[in-house]
Design brief:
The protein has 307 residues and is of the alpha/beta class. The chain has one domain (2-29, 53-177, 221-302): Rossmann fold, CATH 3.40.50. Helix content is 31%, strand content 20%. The protein has an eight-stranded mixed sheet, sandwiched between helices. Helix 3 (116-131) packs across helix 4 (150-161), helix 4 packs across helix 7 (225-231) and helix 7 (225-231) packs across helix 8 (249-258). The chain is globular.
Length: 307
């Protein structure tokens, strides 16, 4: 497995840090590229060993709120999809609160200043870098977005804005709305300019500045996930656990109902928000295995024209 780090700089000078993973020749199984489809026999000699060609498909993976690219299942997911023949692109949003070390929430001032539209813009920046050869990966024929939780909502919005670019969409435990605070919390937020949310894993009280709420209120149309779901053109798989303790499965049903495509809803019985995985990651839980296999199957069908 090849793993290549990269860094992109946002227009205001922040850093987007990530990795590209790809199977080495002879590893995994690679999907045919569009340029290979229907071309008949190749010129490879029968005596030559079969090898995985440089990937012509890529999956861009988006972490969620209080998440980061090296949290729990994300590296394992990226390796699993790379083993299926796709280049996988993981990254930390520039203001997700995780610094250059990539493992700890050690930039909480940055976390406080994050916004939804900023993350949406950064998805577009990563996809553009992938398309234009500025990431350490072959320029792909086809691109998928895969987002978890809040990252799933962002992936839906990005798929709408990048309809001509995104060829498949997968959401895991995705939110159907970013507006997740009651009126009393919002009143306190406006009065004080900052609220805090607990990180149960680390024990940290993580700050959110009023700019996040203002961003949501000032950009309601752009950040309307259910409206975006109606306009997503890419084949879409919605994967959700029926016992998700953070994002109820009803949100997955709302996304499917709003979708204008032949979206497939995959409910995993008794699965929770992270499909049984924790941080640090130890072994692949059975619910996570199901989510990964359904993701791989969706990409194969979407990109073979069978959906």
């Amino acid at each position: 497995m090849e793993e290549h780090p990269y860094t992109l700089t946002t227009p205001d000078g922040e850093q987007i840090r990530g990795e590209v993973r790809m199977a080495q020749p002879g590893e995994g199984r690679g999907p045919a590229s569009r340029s290979d489809e229907g071309d008949g026999p190749t010129s490879r000699s029968d005596e030559e060993p079969a090898q995985v060609r440089p990937s012509r498909s890529a999956v861009v993976i988006l972490h969620g709120f209080k998440g980061f690219r090296r949290w729990g299942f994300f590296p394992h997911l990226a390796r699993s999809l790379a083993d299926a023949g796709h280049a996988t692109v993981t990254f930390d949003f520039s203001r997700n609160g995780v610094g250059p070390g990539g493992e700890e929430f050690d930039e909480l001032d940055a976390f406080a200043k994050n916004t939804f539209t900023r993350e949406l813009d950064e998805v577009a920046q990563v996809v553009d870098a992938l398309q234009t050869g500025r990431l350490p990966a072959p320029v792909p024929d086809r691109i998928a977005l895969l987002g978890h939780s809040r990252g799933g909502g962002t992936a839906i919005l990005a798929a709408r804005e990048l309809n001509d670019t995104i060829d498949a969409l997968v959401t895991w435990a995705a939110v159907a709305s970013f507006d997740r605070w009651g009126d009393e919390v919002k009143e306190e937020w406006r009065r004080t300019g900052r609220i805090h949310v607990a990180n149960a894993r680390t024990g940290q009280e993580m700050p959110l500045d009023i700019g996040l709420l203002e961003d949501l209120e000032q950009n309601r149309s752009r950040l309307d996930i259910l409206a975006a779901a109606q306009q997503v053109e890419a084949p879409w798989s919605i994967i959700h656990g029926t016992r998700d303790e953070s994002v109820p499965a009803d949100e997955a049903r709302k996304l499917q109902a709003a979708s204008a495509t032949s979206t497939r809803l995959e409910l995993i019985p008794d699965a929770g928000h992270t499909f049984g995985a924790g941080h640090p990651f130890e072994a692949e839980p059975s619910d996570l295995s199901v989510a990964i296999e359904r993701t791989r199957a969706h990409l194969e069908k979407a990109w073979s024209g069978i959906h």
